[in-house]
Amino acid sequence: MQLICTRRVPIKDGNGAVLLSPIRILIVDDFKDWRRQVLLLFKTRPEWQVVAEAADGLEAIQKAEELKPDLIVLDIGLPKLNGIEAARRIRQFSASSKIVFLSQVNDRDVVQAALATGAQGYVHKADVRSDFLPAIQAALRDRQFVSRSLKDFTDTSGGKVPHRHEVQFYSDDAVFLDTFARFIAIALKAGNAAIVVATESHRDGLVRRMKTQGLDVDAATQQGTYVQLDVAKALSAFMVNDMPDPARFFEVVSGLVKAAAKAVNQEHPRVVACGECAPFLWAQGKPDAAIRLEQLWDELGKTLDVDILCGYALSSFHGKEDEPVFQGICAEHSAVYPR
After folding, report:
1. Residues 229, 327 within the same domain
2. In the chain, pLDDT over 70 holds for what percent of residues?
3. Looking at residue 76, what DSSP letter applies?
4. Which of 255, 262, 300, 339 is spaced 20 to 30 A from 64 at the CA atom?
């Protein structure tokens, strides 16, 4: 951590006249290179003084309580405690501190959850050169600023954002692992929970992929916010006569969702679910069961506010004879990603 200034010091001109008090700033990011880049941006304005840096959520809370900075630049995916929960706690003892999130996460739900903490801004790291300084200026005027690339993600009407039930048709396992690891990582980095129901090879591949991205999957598993289930065993819990039994499905899956939500250390926990239950049935030659299961997942998503991602191998569909089933599966999803 780099400490630059620990108290408010007036800025003076060449004749010794006081111009204004500096804006005291705390930078929070677990990547040193990003902290350095943000620090350089602040150096363009003499009235902006970085008083401290922090590399994880708990350290951010400690420094914010100790220094009561005027402005906090906060990442989302922080070790020990994510940025959204850190912001909530900071607001309890330093309500006057302005908060601007600077994150590589551009998921709609994460952006809205971040702004719901009372933060003044959210800047996507891809837009840092064009949007960061305007976001800081807006925050200091007590106005909200969101990166232009994220404008469509904010809901100014106050209405509830509909749940997502999306499908990825993947050409190979690399596409599956990339898509699902990103989906799970966004949830975990935001401090939420993720449930994955997949084959053993896919579960192992996802763990390896997320660990290379710096996610502490073992800790999330131990905490209960990352839940892994074998697809065949999961199906056996609610399948009756080769069809999903609705009562058993809701009993089993809603229990998993509620347990995962309980493990989340947030006031408003969210859970995402992903995997290949229905695709497993389709691969076994049970298209009616697959479509019915997709319908049940959709009902559960609406009831419990769960975002869902399904993955089908493109190689399992064969020409025109499978076209009706393919269209039926697509119809049950809010978004379709073919690749």
Report:
1. yes
2. 90
3. S
4. 262
